[in-house]
Write a structure and sequence with these properties.
Number of domains: 2
Structural class: mainly alpha
Radius of gyration: 25 Å
Strand order of the largest sheet: 1-2
Number of helices: 17
Helix content: 55-70%
Number of strands: 6
Oligomer: single chain
Distance between the termini: 23 Å
Largest sheet: 2 strands, antiparallel
Amino acid sequence: MYNLLYYELRKLLGRPFVLVGMLILILVNVSCFCTQSLPSIVAREKEDSAYASGFQAVEIEQRLAQKYGETLTDDVVQQMLHDFQPSAEFMEKTSGVHTAYIYNNSLQQAVQYHFANADGSWNGLSVEQVFGYDSLPLGYSAGWIATCTYMLQILLLLCLFLILVIAPVFCGEYGTVEALLLSARYGRTKLIQAKILAALIFSIGLICLFFLINFALAFYCFGGQGLDACVLFSFENAFSNIASPLSCGQLLRAMFFLSLSGAISVAAITLALSAASKNTYIALIAALFVFLLPLLLNLPSHHPFYKALMLCPVYQVMSNHILSADSISILGKQTLFAWLCLPFDIIISTVAIVLAHARFAKHEVT
């Protein structure tokens, strides 16, 4: 069995387009990092200061975050608004543009976006009125949020790549070795198991690899500071509407488990379609259609099937959508709707793998 699994993994990874695809994904990841993370970060403490970039900008942001403590309260908001209040001369130069859209640093943008009028004065709202809680964990979160944001794009590409790699697993042409194994008494079952395991191992390994790379990059750039900070207290971004006040660390964990669970479902569904199809192109098109269909439907949030649609693998990968769904009560305890994906994926993956096994078991050796 181990030899068969090793053989299937080598065959899966040995195709030329797999190596080319991995290189392209790495280049895209590097490009996203450069355009949305550390190399693109700029900051200054005040409107009359010069902008710093890269590590110097992060140092400014972290120093400002430490200045205001670890908890966002109404008093802290008032202090921030006072410190970041633009001068009259500066407001004249900007022609009345809302101060939140004139960037100095991420804390200034966050507090003025949620709590300031166009001129930077307090808009009368409290922390509880804005976020539903009287206080929130505070820290430098912009760097980690930027990492999570570009990871949404990377994870979507990874799933598309998984479909491309796994689609030929069952419906591709079979060599002499596989024909012999299929004709053997026990070879057929072991070969099917090896193919399924190889596809699942590749899927899990790919998601873990890219998460590890990007987490290591972000940790090198930003350190651990900000992992406890609440995602909600930030300027408008992909995670502005999440239903729970997750910290950056909790958001990363949620993204990891949701994308891993979604990737396993994608792999299982692709295996089932591969086993049911007569050629690779049909399996590939069918798998891409099933994966991307929920995005094409684009149901509004008030639609009765909206939450059911959120359980689909593509929305688990693009987790900012499913994390924005209202919390649900399970055994009297409020929990994220997103965690319903885990039992859903177990059922879908099990059914898909059983169907793939049953269908390919009927394959006739010629």
